[in-house]
Amino acid sequence: MKKQRILTGITTTGTPHLGNYAGAIRPAIKAISDDSESFYFLADYHGIIKCHEPERIHQSTLEIAATWLACGLAPDKAHFYRQSDVPEIMELMWVMNCVCTKGLMNRSHAYKAAVADNEEKGQSDLDHGITMGLFSYPVLMSADILMFNAHKVPVGKDQIQHIEMARDIAQKFNHTFGEIFTLPEAVINEETELLQGLDGRKMSKSYNNTIPLFETEKRLRKLIMKIKTNSQEPGEPKSTDDSTLYQIYKAFATTDEVAEIEKRYAEGIAWGEMKQVLFEKINEEIAPMRERYNELIAEPQKIEEILLAGAERLRPMSQALLADVRNAVGIRKLG
Ligand code: TRP
To answer: Would the CB of 13 count as within 6 Å of ligand 1?
Structure first.
């Protein structure tokens, strides 16, 4: 049987935070095994859809690559590459643009949200400021996935629709031109997906409530001390239900440790103390990686080499697939 292929992309616009780590990076690295084939890539062409700050894109690419490597991704055990280093993805995207109907893209949540935003602002042109990049974003994502015939695509809930669109597009291609593409499936990790941020809402760059993964120890402690709690006094029994501290703790502790903390909540642990416990728990896991991260970040040319080697290893695959696709659609040698 062919090995299952797991593929996911990370948009290069931000600095990795604890939520990204617990929800995506850690499970992805854990999932790397000899029984499957993993493809993890930096989606830099997705990055430029919404971010027109070249320095941000560049810096984020470096930070995200260094993060994955520091967190234990072994480049010989998984395909680790930059989207822009595999130009066949861009060519495949064009072919998919010619298969994908505009109506399918009209239904994209990201596009509809942008239209709704214009409506709310009273814009007479509902497409005001919406680029073709944003509109056809799911086509690029489909090309990423279909290029390597991925079976499973681990993503956040907000991306499920995009994976379904990739399936639709693949099906349409297969139906029209012959069976080339595998139909991908989304995989959602419910448990760790929604790590809460400093204010108790989902940890997200757009809420400005994140705890960056590789802050210095001092900054990490400071940020944890800022996490919102209620105003209960030390000694008062506390509920774990709506406690952000508890929720984050759970993502880092063993089942036994969680049971112990639940007991301490019932006994009325002081918030200050709980923050200290949480800081230590997180730092214990992060500290060795932070050290590796700082070493890696100091040598960007090494990261560059790793990424280039990753793409080079893959390109025979993407070139072969693109050759099949071109042949299937009639773009062939004349003689
Ligand atoms: N759009 C995804 C996100 O914002 C990132 C991404 C780009 C991706 N290409 C992908 C994820 C392909 C999975 C598969 O999270």
So the answer is: no
